[in-house]
Amino acid sequence: MKRRNFLSLGAAAGATLWLPRAFGAEMLQAAHGSAGPLERGYGNLLILVELKGGNDGLNTVIPFADPAYYQLRKNIGVKREQAIQLDERTALHPSLQPLMPLWQSRQLAIVQGVSYAQPNLSHFRSIEIWDTASRSDQYLREGWLSRAFAQTPVPAGFVADGVVIGSAEIGPLANGARAIALVNPAQFVKASRLVTPVSLHERNPELAHILDVENDIVKAADRLRPTQADAQLKTVFPGGAFGTSIKTAMQVLAASDAPKSRASAAAPRAQPDSGQGVAVIRLTLNGFDTHQNQSGQQAALLKQLAEGFASMKSALVELGRWDDTLVMTYAEFGRRPRENQSNGTDHGTVAPHFVMGGRVKGGLYGVPPVLARLDGNGNLPVGVDFRQLYATVLGPWWGLDSSAILQQRFEPLPLLRV
Which residues contact 121 (CB under 8 A, 6 or more apart)? Predict the structure, then answer.
C-alpha cells in the first residue's frame, strides 16, 4: 500500500475512530522535570492546537508595565490588578489561571512575537502559509508535516501519520500525510467499508487507490477501537466541544496503553505492535476572530484553553505520556495593538504561542512587544519566525532534517530539556 496519499474520511465524517499510541507507556514520573535524556523520533508525540481566527496576543500575555498598552486599549485592556503577574513587566490574562501550576513547575514555555516576514492578514492565505511553512510570497501544496513524513516515514505499523479532531480541515497534514479526520468526536458512527466499484479502477485508478487506502485505515481504526472500559480515564475533562476533543485525543492514546507493553523508564522503548501508533494529533479551538466585544469572548476562550490544557496534562501523566508529548499552539496571526471602535481588535501580525510538556524548559522566550515601535500600519514587528517552532519539533524533538523539510535553515528554539 502506498502511504503518501492524502486521506480524508469523507464517508466517515463524524465517526470516532480509535487509534492506539505508538509505544508502551513508560513508568509515571514526577511532574517536576524528572525526565531523562531526550530521545528523538516518532515515539515523541506532537499535539497541535489551532487557535482559529487569530488570538489577541496583547490581552493574552500582557505587557502591563508599558504605559502605551493602556493608551492603546482604554476599553479592553486587562486591568493590572486582575492580571496574573509573571515578572516585572509581563502578565497573563486572568482566565489563564489554570496554567499557573505548569508555569510554576517550568513545564510551560511562552514564545512571544511570533509571525513571519511580510505577514498576510487574510485568514485563508495566512493559515495556508502556516500550514505549508511557506514564505509569504511562496505557494506550496503540501503541509509541512506531510513533507516531514515524506522525508522520513513513520514506522510501518502506525495506523496513521496523524489524527485531526474536531475539524474537517486537514491543515499541515494536507496532500501527502495519512490522516484521519474525526469531525464530530462526540458522536460515534461505525465506519463501514467504502465501496470501490470495479470499473473505477480502470476509469480513475488514482481515486480508486485513495479509496482503497481509506478503507485500510477505516478497518484498522475500527479494529483497534477499545471498549468504553478500555478507554476510561480518571481525568475529568472540561465541557464543550474543545473539552470533548481533548478527551477524544486522550482516549486515542489510552487505546493501546496495555499493561503487557509497559516498559520501565530505564528500559529501551518497545517497538510498536502491528497497527499501532500515531505521530501527531491536531485539535482546533474556534472563535478567536474578535472584531467586536472582545473582552468577554476572549476570556471565555482562554478559560477553555487553560482548563483544557490542565486536563490534558493530567491525562498525559495518567497515561505515562507526559514526558514524550509536546503540545504547541498556533494561529494564522495576532491582532492589532490598538482597539477598534467596536471594543474589539482587527487582524494584526505577531502573537505569543504556548508550548508545554514534561520535557519543556519553561519560561518566556522570543521578543516581548515594544508598543512604542509599531510599524506604519500600527502593527508590531516580527520577533520570531514561526518556522523556528517547526524547526524545534522537526530537529530536537523528532531528529529530522528540518532544513530540507522547511526549505531553509531556521534555528530551533531552546525550549526542550536535553
Answer: 333, 347, 348, 349
Model confidence, pTM: 0.84
On whether residue 3 sits in a domain, the answer given is no
- pLDDT tens for each residue of 186-195: 543 333 333 4
- pLDDT tens by residue, 19-59: 322 222 232 233 334 456 678 899 999 999 999 999 999 99
CA 120 to chain centre: 21
Residue 156 lies in domain: 10-406
Give the whole-angstrom CA distance, residue 25 versus residue 23: 6
User: Which residues have a Cβ under 8 Å from the Cβ of 276 and sit 6 or more positions away?
Assistant: 20, 21, 22, 157, 158, 159, 224, 256
- Report the phi/psi class of residue 118: left, alpha or beta, with left for phi > 0 and alpha for psi in -120 to 50: left
Three-state DSSP state, 305 = helix
Q: How many structural domains comprise the chain?
A: 1
Other beta carbons less than 10 A from residue 297's beta carbon: 16
- Give me the phi and psi of 46, to 5 degrees please: -110, 130
